[in-house]
Amino acid sequence: MTAPGVCLRGDASFGGTPLFARTTLDLVAGGWTCLLGPSGIGKSTLLRLIAGLQTGATFNGKIAASDAAPLAGRVAYMAQDDLLLPWLDLRGNVALGARLRGQMPDTARIDALLGRLGLADHAEKRPARLSGGQRQRAALARTLCEDKPIVLLDEPFSALDARTRADMQDLAAAHLAGRTVLLVTHDPMEAVRLGHRLYLMDGAGVHRLPPPGGPDPIRPVDHPETLAQGARLLERLRAVA
Amino acid sequence: MTRLAQLGNGLLVAGVLLGAWQALVSLADLPSFILPGPGRVAQALWQNADLIAWHAGVTFTEVIAGLILGSLLGAGTALHMAVSPTAKRFVRPLLVLTQALPVFALAPILTLWLGYGIGSKILMAVLIIYFPVASAFYDGLTATPRGWLDLAQSMQATRRQVLWRIRVPAALPALASGLRLAAVYAPIGAIIGEWVGASQGLGYLMLLANGRAKIDLMFAALAVLAVMTLVLHRVVGAGCDRLTARLE
User: Fold this and answer.
1) Dihedral, B144, B147, B153, B158 alpha carbons, nearest 10
2) Residues of A whose CB is below 8 A from B150
3) Rounded to an integer, what distance in angstroms lies between the CA atom of residue A154 and that of residue A132?
4) Closest CA of chain A from B76, distance in Å
């Protein structure tokens, strides 16, 4: 799969109040772009605009893939909430996309995916019987099952405890390699670990930051350069008005 | 609470009420044409068992038919309103109207139109439960969590699949609470219908017994009606519990 880059250029307002001024967000083709910013600044709105979801905002501009083909049907979406349906078992939840399109799900592929994410023993369990980490892994399996070149992640790990979050970051980096990923997050460390490209969003709009140095993503949590950059980014985030 | 403890609790409450009833009759020395004691009512029930059973069968038929038709109609209306804005615009006022008009006031007209048979009673039961079922289910269908709908949209789901695979299952607990209400309302509709004009059914039997000063028979019919409603409520409630348990 060759994943295209995605470029959003434009401004948005919310009932006449500007949400962000003219902004350019350029997603790395086949890599991770992290959009960092404090809560409530409008990061999710940007992601939802690219996903084609309702935002309530008026967007004035253009969102296009670098290969000029339409985005619709090439985007998978994962949110902070795992959004698993409580009445379906994990297999049913992972197969949801196919079912919702009225297609027959590929059970062999679904079982393989559950196996790769360490959920093989839980395939027949309902979400209520799983831990938060397992549920979010199931949500990742569902996202991977969609097999889309562009993947939009809206703070998918922010409700997890520190250890599970780091594990999920490793898993997501491994399984989403080669896809164009936009990760919206308020965690500077997460952005520095995963990002090929970083953006910071504040009240004035979106700013492109220099790419993180050190090894290629996913960067080890204890790498000195990663730690230092994470700390610098946190300082920068704290300075955002 | 275990089932046995629940049953024991119910029997205890029933025992206390019966004791208080008997005490009231004995202490106040009430004549049996004003308030017969529980013993007398039990005797009337025993002596008129066949008569009461036959009339109870009629009422039961009306209630069950009304419950099924009213639930189907209510659920269908809710689904229709949930998928079609036009239907919502036209049907919603109609739905509110069925609730605004007292069903009691409609009873004589329905009897005039549909006659003394069970048709007018079934329609009364339908009218009385239509609103709670439709309104509860519709509320459930329009309260689907936003995140699930976003996810479905990002998966390019069809509207029909979103309705049947997400919105309807998510709304079943709401439908269940509508059905629980319907189970206790439906007998009210049927009995009102029988009071206004009927030649059979427990409501008719109660009026008849009352007119002939057979107050013990009237109370016996009333007791059977109460038991019928309680059982119906429990059965529908248990069904609803099983339905919602499958969704959690």
Assistant:
1) -30
2) 48, 51, 53-54, 77, 79, 83
3) 17
4) 22
Measured in degrees and rounded to the nearest 5, phi and psi for residue B2 equal -75, 165
pLDDT at A75: 95
What is the pTM for the complete model shown?
A: 0.86
Q: What order do you get walking across the sheet with A150-154 strand by strand?
A: A75-78, A150-154, A180-185, A32-36, A197-202, A205-209
| Residue ranges of chain B whose CB lies within 8 Å of a chain A CB | 147-148, 150-158, 160-162, 165-166, 169, 246-248
Tell me which chain B residues have a C-beta less than 8 angstroms from the C-beta of A126.
248
- E-assigned strand segments in B64-120: none
Question: Length of chain B, please?
Answer: 248
Which conformational region is residue B30 in: left (phi greater than 0), alpha (psi within -120 to 50 degrees), or beta? beta
Residue A124 pLDDT greater than 70, yes or no: yes
pLDDT digits (tens, 9 = 90+) for B21-60: 999 998 988 888 888 999 999 999 999 999 999 999 999 9
Closest CA to A193 of A185, A201, A202: A185
Report the pLDDT averaged over residues A190-214.
89
Secondary element (H or E) of residue A9: strand A6-14
Spell out the SS3 assignment of A22-71.
EEEEEECCCCEEEEECCCCCCHHHHHHHHHCCCCCCEEEEEEEECCCCCC
Residue B30 sits at the vertex; the CA angle it makes with B26 and B33, to the nearest 5 degrees, is 130
